[in-house]
């Protein structure tokens, strides 16, 4: 079985050494020493000022919206994982979908400005597949209309834009440390800002709004445990080597796939990529479905990531007075995009097998046209 991704696990003895310390201290959660150590190391690794390690990549989106007092309309992308839209709806906001760019599938800044109304409070954009959005253009729009910028940077750990971590941009930026990500803590996420006041607010939001017996604000339970922090401390030093290994697998695909019938999203100039995903786009959904069936017949599981276009989800439509917001590029790409298996120890022989199946399925479809 070859899955679309495979979690990296460190040496068991290395992880167990951290567990021994947890057993000795009997400090399992509540801002423990391993969590603080991981936060410090991540800030240093990413070169960011404030970083809060939390339970997952969705709750930090919710915290971002709450911390910035966003309650009305938010212009966002329809081409993302559903958590981006769910966070908006969960916090009572109205998602306004701006279509995507046809080359990199990130939100199109040229489509944002016409959607701004007196109720618009923020832009929530996703760096799709770990590739940076048009950051300068988005920031210019935000400054012109006095909007906040939140980035769903779930895919970007280890990637940089203009020699800065992609997580360092925006008023707030969030990341996921789910087990499938380039860097993971089994489950987890973080929220990043360079604003001291926001960082303090987020600190209390994460822990029910109090420190010891002193209460400062509303809050929720977004604390992560020492066990998750221990995994992060094991994995973090390996990230450069893991990215290098992913890059090698990425190159195998580039060399072996038949690009006469498929395309790939372009990389934003200035991005040093982390090779988080390997998406390809077919000429039709029919071709995609044939490729998926052919791969699954050989116990290979790709993923339709992202599908469907979020503006077509019934509950998203319902949030906008029952009117579907048209995003034709996203709707089209979502039908035709497929992520192939990509993880550090995927072998060259396995990539050969995957590419052979994909190329053959594409050729069969072409012959039948």
Structure description:
Helices cover 40% and strands 14% of the residues. With 369 residues, it is α/β, with parallel strands linked by helices. It folds into two domains: 12-237, 3-Layer(aba) Sandwich (Aspartate Aminotransferase, domain 2); 240-368, Aspartate Aminotransferase, domain 1 (Alpha-Beta Complex). The strands form four sheets. The protein has a seven-stranded mixed sheet with strand order 1-9-8-5-4-2-3, with helices on both faces. Strand 4, helix 6 and strand 5 (148-152) form a beta-alpha-beta unit. Helix 3 packs across helix 4 (82-90). The protein is globular and about 70 Å long. The mean pLDDT is 96.
| Whole-number mean pLDDT | 96
How many distinct beta strands? 14
**Structural class estimated from helices and strands:** alpha/beta
What name does the CATH topology of the largest domain carry?
A: Aspartate Aminotransferase, domain 2
Q: How would you spell out the order of helices and strands?
A: HHEHEHEHEHEEEEEHEEHHEEHHHEH
Strands of the biggest beta sheet: in what spatial order?
1-9-8-5-4-2-3
Rounded Rg: 21 Å
Low-confidence stretches: none
Shape by Cα distribution: globular
- Give me the CATH architecture of the largest domain, please: 3-Layer(aba) Sandwich
Major sheet summary line: 7 strands, mixed
Number of helices: 13
Count of the domains: 2
End-to-end distance: 32 Å
Helix content: 40-55%
Q: Give the percentage of residues in beta strands.
A: 5-15%
At the fourth level of CATH, the homologous superfamily of the largest domain is Type I PLP-dependent aspartate aminotransferase-like (Major domain)
């Amino acid at each position: 079985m070859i899955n679309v991704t495979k979690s990296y696990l460190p040496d068991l003895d290395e992880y167990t050494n951290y567990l021994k310390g947890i057993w000795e201290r009997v400090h399992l959660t509540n801002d423990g020493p391993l969590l603080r150590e991981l936060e410090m190391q991540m800030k240093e690794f990413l070169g960011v000022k404030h970083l809060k390690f939390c339970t997952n990549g969705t709750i930090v989106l919710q915290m971002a919206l709450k911390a910035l007092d966003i309650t009305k309309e938010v212009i966002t992308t329809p081409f993302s994982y559903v958590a981006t839209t769910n966070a908006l709806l969960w916090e009572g906001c109205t998602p306004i979908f701006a279509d995507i760019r046809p080359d990199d599938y990130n939100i199109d800044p040229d489509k944002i400005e016409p959607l701004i109304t007196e109720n618009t409070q923020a832009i929530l954009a996703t760096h799709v597949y770990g590739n940076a959005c048009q950051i300068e253009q988005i920031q210019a729009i935000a400054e012109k209309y006095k909007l906040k910028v939140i980035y769903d940077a779930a895919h970007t750990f280890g990637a940089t834009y203009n020699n800065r971590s992609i997580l360092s941009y925006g008023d707030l930026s969030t990341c996921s440390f789910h087990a499938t990500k380039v860097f993971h803590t089994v489950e987890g996420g973080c929220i990043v800002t360079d604003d001291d006041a926001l960082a303090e607010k987020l600190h209390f939001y994460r822990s029910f709004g109090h420190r010891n017996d002193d209460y400062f604000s509303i809050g929720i339970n977004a604390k992560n445990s020492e066990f998750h922090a221990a995994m992060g401390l094991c994995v973090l030093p390996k990230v450069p080597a893991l990215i290098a290994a992913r890059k090698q697998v990425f190159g195998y695909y580039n060399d072996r796939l038949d690009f006469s019938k498929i395309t790939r999203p372009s990389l934003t100039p200035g991005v040093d990529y982390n090779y988080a995903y390997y998406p390809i786009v077919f000429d039709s959904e029919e071709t995609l479905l044939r490729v998926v069936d052919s791969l699954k017949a050989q116990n290979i599981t790709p993923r339709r990531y992202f599908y469907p276009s979020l503006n077509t989800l019934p509950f998203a439509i319902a949030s906008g007075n029952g009117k579907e917001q048209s995003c034709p590029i996203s709707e089209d790409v979502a039908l035709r995009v497929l992520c192939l298996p990509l993880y550090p120890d995927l072998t060259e022989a396995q990539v050969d097998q995957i590419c052979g199946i994909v190329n053959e399925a594409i050729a069969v479809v072409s012959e039948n046209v």
